[in-house]
Design a protein that fits this description.
binds zinc ion; 3-stranded antiparallel beta sheet; 3-stranded mixed beta sheet; hypothetical protein PF0899 fold; single chain
């Protein structure tokens, strides 16, 4: 499962940043074009965080809408999946400029 590996990386990042302190809350940003399912990450987080500083932490997930730029006409097009067509010129040559990443945005320690 794709999300399990990703969540393991997220927990490793949190542990590194927390430097041994107990983590109360984590805010993750998940881009809509990343192909990562927020609910799957939430599920994996409970498993992956066991025995780490992130165990029992509240996981908040903010979804980031996708945005692409047309490489033909330069128009910026909102996208909710990694494929699309330019609304201005009909080109499929779109370059994703936002919404492809997963980021650990904030960590609150107690
Ligand atoms: Zn275009």
């Amino acid at each position: 499962m794709h999300e399990l590996k990703i969540t393991q990386n997220v927990v490793a990042t949190i542990s590194k940043r927390a430097k041994g302190a107990k983590v109360q809350r984590v805010l993750l940003e998940i881009g809509k074009l990343s192909g990562i399912m927020p609910e799957a990450v939430r599920y994996c987080f409970d498993v992956c965080s066991q025995g780490t500083v992130a165990e029992g932490a509240i996981l908040a997930i903010q979804e980031i809408p996708g945005l692409a730029r047309c490489s033909k006409c330069g128009a910026e097009i909102p996208l909710d999946k990694p494929l699309g067509v330019c609304e201005e010129c009909g080109s499929v040559e779109l370059v994703m400029i936002r919404g492809q990443d997963l980021k650990v945005k904030e960590i609150e320690m107690g």
